[in-house]
């Protein structure tokens, strides 16, 4: 299966660089480019990409609003592109909002080419990119913008989880992969996949990224508590 990618960045040179990297892969094709969020929305609707590689800071409609529109505009049951957000990290203060808007993860703009390619494949397959070190630093940095456990009651649906599923959710929030969770809990990776699926289904979450944000919002994980 060929993964169809839409590149969204207001810098043409960056788009060209990404295109050269991605089109060198036999299973990836770049179907279009956009220099702002408004064009990205139109291109996404017309080209039906599998993955949108989305910059945050752009003139006019930014990456956050564009992500929200792309995810929101999809008709029920219709194809919904997966959005992979690009960030310079030190400058972008809106990554949490991007995740809430429907992004399936984020990458740093200086990501090595092989990691960029792998991230696109992972997202296209329906999973999410949650880089452990970056995720923890971002959520810690912007934690004051998230409700604390004292400010927001734990959603009723969290109580649907079993003790093991809660444990798995906490480990997901620490940025651990299925293999790492399996090693931590001394169970098989297949068992972990089952638990992760149950967590996402019971909490009505789209992917692991939303699980991370929910864990912080509900106080299951507290900012600064993870080494």
UniProtKB/TrEMBL annotation:
Location of 4-aspartylphosphate modifications: 55
**Keywords for the protein's UniProt record, in alphabetical order:** DNA-binding, Phosphoprotein, Transcription, Transcription regulation
Q: Where is the HTH luxR-type domain?
A: 154-219
Recorded hits in Gene3D superfamilies, A to Z, give: 3.40.50.2300
State the source organism's domain of life: Bacteria
Q: Does the keyword Cell membrane apply?
A: no
Name of a matching Pfam family: GerE
Q: Which InterPro entries match?
A: CheY-like_superfamily, NreC/VraR/RcsB-like_REC, Sig_transdc_resp-reg_C-effctor, Sig_transdc_resp-reg_receiver, Tscrpt_reg_LuxR_C, WalR-like
Question: Domain Response regulatory, which positions?
Answer: 4-124
CDD domains for the chain = LuxR_C_like (cd06170), REC_NarL-like (cd17535)
Keyword Acetylation in annotation: no
The name on file for this protein is Response regulator
């Amino acid at each position: 299966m060929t993964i169809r990618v839409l590149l969204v960045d207001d810098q043409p040179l960056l788009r060209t660089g990404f295109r050269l990297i991605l089109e060198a892969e036999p299973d990836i094709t770049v179907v279009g480019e956009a220099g702002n969020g408004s064009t990205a929305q139109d291109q996404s609707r017309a080209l039906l990409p599998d993955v949108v590689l989305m910059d945050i800071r752009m003139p006019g409609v930014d990456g956050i609003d564009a992500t929200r529109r792309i995810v929101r505009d999809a008709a029920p049951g219709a194809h919904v592109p997966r959005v992979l957000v690009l960030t310079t990290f030190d400058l972008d203060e809106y990554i949490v909002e991007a995740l809430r808007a429907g992004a399936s993860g984020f990458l740093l703009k200086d990501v090595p080419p092989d990691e960029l390619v792998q991230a696109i494949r992972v997202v296209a397959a329906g999973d999410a990119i949650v880089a452990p070190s970056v995720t923890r630093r971002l959520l810690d940095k912007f934690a004051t913008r998230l409700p604390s456990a004292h400010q927001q009651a734990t959603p009723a649906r969290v109580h649907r989880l079993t003790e093991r599923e809660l444990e798995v959710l906490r480990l997901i929030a620490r940025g651990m992969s299925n293999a790492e969770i399996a090693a931590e809990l001394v169970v098989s990776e297949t068992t972990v996949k089952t638990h992760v699926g149950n967590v996402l289904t019971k909490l009505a979450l789209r992917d692991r990224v939303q699980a991370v944000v929910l864990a912080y919002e509900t106080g299951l994980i507290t900012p600064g508590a993870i080494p």
